[in-house]
Amino acid sequence: MMSSRYTPHLRATLALGLPLVGSHLARMTIHVADTVMIGWYGVAELAALVIAVSFFNILFFLGMGFGIGVMGLIAAAIARGDEVEVRRSARMALWLSIGFAVAVIPALWHSGPILLAIGQEPVVARLAQDYLRIAGFGLIAVLCQLTLNSYLAAMERTQVVLWITLAGLPLVIVLNWLLIFGNLGAPELGVRGAAIAAVAVQFSQLAAIAAYAAWLPDARKFHLFQRFWRPDWPGMRTVFVLGLPIGLTMLAEGGLFVGSNVMMGWIGTRELAAHGIALQLASLTFMLHLGMSNAATVRIGQAKGRGDAAWMRDAGVTVTVVSAVIAALAVAGFELFPRPLVGLYLDASAPQAPSIIEIAAGLLFYAGLFQLMDAMQVIALGLLRGVQDTRVPMVIAGISYWLVGMPVAYGLAFPAGLGPAGLWLGLLAGLSLAALLLMRRFWRGLARGDWTGKPAAG
């Protein structure tokens, strides 16, 4: 049990982190609804959705660095009382998010030939392109949402974001029911219906979050949307230099999982569908740690703004312990209830359902193994982003995921003949190395006084 000195940190971390966790889970649950409903529609469509979302996420990961990176900047600026810095950082992060999304939409539009070139089956590539030609426009909305979420989180205003995100779940379910299956006279659009539903929900949520950010009395002094069209080139450069390494770090990590999807597609459509289910279940628990990581970024950013090394140390210990406890609970769930969890995604009467459930349930064993390592690497990244340290973590991520994780995954899956299990063991190897090196960097830097100008006393 934590000593009394950590109690205020525990309360503050949970008060900030739980709504962020809820927002991430709600957003992820929307994706789960898409996957479940497409899984009921057809196995080929489910495999196409898995690979399409992977393609979308590659570009999303690269672009999300601006929205994530600005969180620590804003938290530190608020702690210093610098209203101008808050406005310029948030506004230029929005500019960069919009510009990036517009620039990469053509790649999503012409995704079919790319998917064929990396070995996906023609029917899967065609259906995935159908999805991405619509869903790609939602990238503008999700990147801007991410930036506004960071802006509000840095002010510790996360509850409304949670409710707005939750409101999207029933909306997407209704739209999917109408447009995927063609109910109540609506056209039966399959994966295209899922894409239309996703984009409609994403832009609705963006409008609601932007309206709240403009209305919030505590935020009016920042004048975020006043003369929004005016550029701030020094501010943009600051956000770009901080955010690009974060985007590349996210790309390295996300690319590891996307690469596993591609390689699983080489093994077979059933294996890819099963892998997508297991990976999405693992991603749901990851959202818990991601929310705590965001809370870590805000709290460590506040400490950096005040130059308080002891406060930074205690806040870091607290969020790390909380995330480790969550990871232990997730491991128990995956190892004890694999088949009931997987069974939620498929119509049990479908001909291929039993074999897919069997494969996915086996993969959940490996998903349980890397829960703690996945938690520790994302918490470490949140701690480091709070002190605006992003370049070295980018290098660590590249080495861990692409020089270790991906080669190990390929080697175990194909030359060693372990198949799907080998891919997941490769994921575990990459995540473990990243967790070790990133945690070591934050705590050694804190002990040396790198983050606040003075070392934290034990």
TrEMBL record:
UniProtKB keywords: Antiport, Cell membrane, Ion transport, Membrane, Transmembrane, Transmembrane helix, Transport
Principal place of residence: membrane
GO CC term (a single one): plasma membrane
Swiss-Prot/TrEMBL GO biological process terms: monoatomic ion transport
Compartmental location: Cell inner membrane
Listed GO MF terms: antiporter activity; xenobiotic transmembrane transporter activity
Spans through the membrane: 47-80, 92-111, 131-148, 160-182, 194-217, 238-260, 272-290, 311-334, 354-373, 394-415, 421-439
NCBIfam families in the cross-refs: matE (TIGR00797)
Entry protein name: Multidrug-efflux transporter
Protein species of origin: Paracoccus thiocyanatus
Higher taxonomy: Bacteria, Pseudomonadati, Pseudomonadota, Alphaproteobacteria, Rhodobacterales
